[in-house]
């Protein structure tokens, strides 16, 4: 019951927090054209630029190959792992999800290796050590904890996966079922809930933030199109 | 504090990432703006009792007006990608000159006063109260950023430290800590018409003197018209072009281009300045007021085209912001924009960069050039930061790199690029941009020029380069001052139109020009 309550609360905070943040970003105007150039001149081009940022981490690749390798391993490992986890929320399990199962399982290794690399950089590189705050370490440790407990239940001490699925299906359909009393899975779930809660109030906002970044999401067409924010347009009327 | 002693860094074989040396640049403090300067700008000139509230209020105001600021303060994950990208860090090794650390000076305060996590667990997330020490750090390190945007190229979220620096300076202005250099200039440009404070009659004298010089030199009566009603082109150029060396050589180059092409043109005494320091201080209204001079001059003189001379940040403001700020451009459908648009010649981009104009004229054969006139030179090209990363030329993304190089290669036979990671979008700032071109920041300027000096040195050694062309008044002034400290001759630096001016053939169209 405690876990059920925790997950309802964590989901609520995650959704409300993220919706609020996205609303807040979208209502805040970008009064000037500030794409980092060279930039695409059309909206279509912007979608392509953004896609390269989201999928390939293009700017990071230009910047630093180590951060890029670790960051990309972590994020795409995690993506596969998350997709694999859909099997705990969908019945019956569709074929593609069955197909992805082994990839999702071993992607956890990618994820944890990436995270360990990122954590090591915080200790090893003096510049990164200087800029790291306690929360930067905590967040990495938390993700590594989630990854390792998850891997333990998958590869080492198998948990009662059927009961776990019943628990989550129960949550989704408001028909509460007991959570399996296995310390590793409980630790895994508790850490995930914590991550969900801190997502909208932390640097994890880089995920939605990227889509709102004016240096990346603006088209380079200021000579052809007049771009004026509402608060700035009022200045024109005083002339 | 003036003329403090400091060591000139040594140029190495390649650009090296230094080990951190904490606090080594915390003493760098640009002079504070005195009362009359701040009064004119409508800012206080000293910290009042309520400075902290004023600062937080202003920050809140800016967070509501600029999505860039809000997103950038939230999104950073401290990955470290930017830490070795800033020329001031590379030149000084002070960790607060790493872009992320410079941002964190503001981010720590943002977290403390504007985020849940920072209100509840300040230590955990690196949030800090706004204290006088923090404010002093802001003043020091927000005047060790030239707003060149190099960091934003490499950030996975496109976080642009320039946006944070601009906001920081705006807040500092609002609590009474304005910078003397920039704010004085903003006063002069609004009161007199240009950043140098050169009044109309003095400007006319200078131009007449230059006309005489050109005629004595070439035998051709090339004119430098000012305030000519009904001219086709209004040329807006940095005021340094009127009397600084090597800037003036480019002005002579523009005049020869217009003459040779038979285009009627004029300068404006009211808008005798392309530069707009409003950009550096992050105040939209100031930037707009300064930009409005150009619109007013264009309307008053009835010109059909507006062309901008060699100035980096001015081109950013002109290309990226003039349409927004003053309706100078296309696509506006409000009465304010239409008034100007209907006067403009829609066959040309508005505003147009002088390099776009000259390059088109050469390519279409409307003006003739003889590149062998520059055979004594081995040329390289310094991409100015604002042109490279905050604007464009021509129709294609990246035209801002291609067009100036095409132009140089058409007027000079020997050209070599500097290393790839120091040009194009990765170009290093000259070290004097963004309102730092003042003697009280000489240490910052000299050290910040180290990466560029290193890249230049490499092509000097390898190709015997003896001329670095650039299209920015600040770059020119900065390099002629600081490159000699690294052992280079100051005459190595000059404008692209300095080369054009030497190579251009004036005689060919001499007879037709007065008919235009």
Folded structure, characterized:
The complex is a heterodimer of chains A (239) and B (516). Chain A is mostly helical and 239 residues long. Chain A has a single domain (2-27, 38-219), classed as Up-down Bundle (Fumarate Reductase Cytochrome B subunit), CATH 1.20.950. Helix content of chain A is 72%, strand content 0%. Chain A is built from 12 helices and no strands. Chain A has helices spanning 2-27, 43-56, 58-63, 65-85, 95-124, 126-131, 134-156, 161-172, 183-198, 206-211, 214-217, 230-237. Chain A is globular. Chain B is mostly helical and 516 residues long. Chain B has 2 domains: 35-178, Fumarate Reductase Iron-sulfur Protein, Chain B, domain 2; 188-416 and 465-509, no CATH class. Helices cover 48% and strands 5% of the residues of chain B. Chain B is built from 24 helices and 9 strands. Chain B has a 4-stranded parallel β-sheet. In chain B, strands 6-7-8 form a 3-stranded parallel β-sheet, with helices on both faces. A two-stranded antiparallel sheet of chain B has the order 5-9. Chain B is globular, with a radius of gyration of 23 Å. Chain B starts with 34 loop residues before the first helix and ends in an 11-residue tail after the last strand. Residues 508-516 of chain B have low confidence and may be disordered. Classes of the chains: A mainly alpha (239), B mainly alpha (516). Chains A and B meet through helix 1, helix 3, helix 6, helix 7 and helix 10 of A and helix 2, helix 3, helix 5, helix 7 and helix 9 of B.
Number-wise, the strands of chain A total 0
Q: Structural class from helices and strands of chain B?
A: mainly alpha
Q: Overall pLDDT of chain B, averaged?
A: 95
The Rg value of chain A, from CA coordinates, equals 21 Å
Alpha-carbon distance between the termini of chain A? 65 Å
The CATH superfamily name of chain A is Transmembrane di-heme cytochromes, Chain C
Kindly state the percentage of residues in helix of chain B. 40-55%
């Amino acid at each position: 019951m405690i876990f059920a309550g925790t997950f309802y609360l964590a989901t609520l905070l995650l959704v409300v927090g993220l919706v609020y943040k996205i609303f807040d970003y979208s209502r805040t105007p970008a009064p000037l054209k500030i794409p980092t150039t060279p930039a695409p001149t059309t909206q279509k081009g912007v979608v392509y630029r953004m896609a390269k940022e989201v999928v390939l981490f293009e700017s990071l690749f230009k910047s630093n190959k180590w951060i890029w390798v670790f960051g990309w391993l972590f994020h795409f490992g995690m993506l596969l792992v998350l997709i694999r986890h859909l099997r705990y929320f969908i019945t019956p399990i569709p074929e593609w999800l069955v197909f992805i199962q082994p990839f999702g399982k071993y992607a956890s290794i990618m994820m944890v290796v990436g995270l360990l690399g990122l954590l090591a950089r915080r200790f090893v590189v003096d510049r990164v050590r200087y800029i790291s705050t306690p929360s930067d370490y905590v967040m990495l440790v938390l993700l590594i904890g989630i990854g390792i407990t998850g891997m333990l239940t998958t590869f080492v001490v198998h948990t009662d996966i059927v009961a776990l699925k019943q628990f989550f299906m129960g949550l989704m359909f408001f028909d509460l079922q007991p959570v399996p009393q296995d310390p590793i899975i409980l630790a895994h779930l508790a850490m995930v809930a914590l991550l969900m809660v801190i997502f909208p109030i932390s640097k994890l906002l880089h995920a939605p933030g990227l889509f709102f970044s004016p240096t990346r999401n603006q088209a380079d067409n200021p000579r052809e199109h007049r771009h004026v924010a509402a608060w700035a347009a009022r200045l024109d009327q005083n002339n | 504090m003036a003329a403090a002693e400091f060591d000139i860094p040594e140029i190495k074989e390649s650009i090296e990432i230094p080990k951190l040396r904490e606090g080594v640049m915390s003493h760098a403090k640009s002079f504070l703006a005195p009362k009359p300067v701040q009064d004119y700008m409508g800012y206080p000139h000293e910290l009042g009792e309520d400075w902290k509230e004023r600062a937080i209020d202003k920050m809140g105001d800016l967070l509501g007006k600029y999505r860039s600021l809000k997103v950038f303060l939230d999104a950073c994950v401290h990955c470290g990608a930017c830490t070795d990208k800033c020329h001031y860090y590379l030149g000084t090794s002070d960790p607060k000159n790493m872009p992320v650390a410079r941002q964190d000076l503001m981010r720590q305060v943002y977290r403390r006063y504007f985020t849940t996590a920072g209100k509840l667990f300040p230590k955990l997330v690196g949030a800090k109260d706004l204290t006088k020490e923090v404010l002093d750090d802001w003043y020091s390190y927000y005047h060790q950023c030239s707003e060149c945007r190099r960091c934003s190229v490499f950030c996975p979220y496109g976080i642009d430290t320039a946006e944070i620096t601009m906001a920081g300076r705006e807040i500092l202005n609002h609590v009474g800590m304005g910078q003397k250099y920039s704010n004085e200039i903003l006063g002069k440009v609004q009161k007199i018409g240009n950043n140098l404070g050169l009044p109309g009659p003095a400007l006319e004298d200078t131009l007449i003197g230059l006309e005489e010089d050109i005629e004595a030199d070439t035998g051709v009566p090339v004119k430098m018209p000012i305030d000519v009603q009904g001219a086709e082109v209004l040329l807006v150029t940095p005021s340094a072009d009127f009397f600084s060396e090597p800037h003036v050589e480019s002005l002579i180059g523009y005049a020869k281009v217009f003459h040779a092409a038979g285009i009627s043109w004029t300068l404006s005494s009211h808008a005798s300045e392309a530069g707009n320091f409003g950009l550096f201080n992050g105040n939209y209204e100031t930037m707009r007021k300064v930009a409005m001079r150009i619109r007013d001059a264009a309307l008053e003189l009835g010109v059909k085209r507006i062309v901008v001379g060699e100035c980096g940040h001015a081109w950013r403001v002109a290309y990226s912001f003039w349409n927004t700020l003053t309706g100078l451009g296309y696509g506006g459908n409000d009465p304010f924009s239409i008034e100007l648009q209907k006067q403009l010649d829609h066959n040309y981009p508005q505003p147009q960069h002088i390099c776009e104009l000259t390059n088109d004229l050469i390519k279409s054969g409307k003006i003739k050039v003889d590149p062998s006139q520059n055979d004594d030179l081995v040329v390289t090209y310094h991409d100015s930061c604002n042109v490279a990363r905050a604007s464009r030329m021509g129709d294609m993304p990246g035209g801002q790199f291609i067009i100036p190089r095409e132009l140089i290669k058409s007027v000079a036979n020997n050209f070599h690029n500097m290393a790839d990671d120091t040009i194009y979008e990765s170009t290093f700032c000259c070290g004097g941009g963004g309102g730092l071109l003042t003697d009280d920041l000489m240490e910052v300027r000299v050290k910040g020029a180290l990466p560029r000096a290193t890249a230049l040195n490499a092509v000097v050694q390898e190709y015997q380069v003896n001329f670095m062309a650039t299209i920015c008044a600040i770059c020119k002034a900065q390099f002629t001052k600081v490159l000699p400290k690294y052992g280079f001759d100051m005459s190595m630096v000059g404008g692209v139109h300095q080369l054009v001016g030497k190579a251009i053939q004036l005689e060919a169209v001499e007879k037709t020009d007065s008919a235009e």
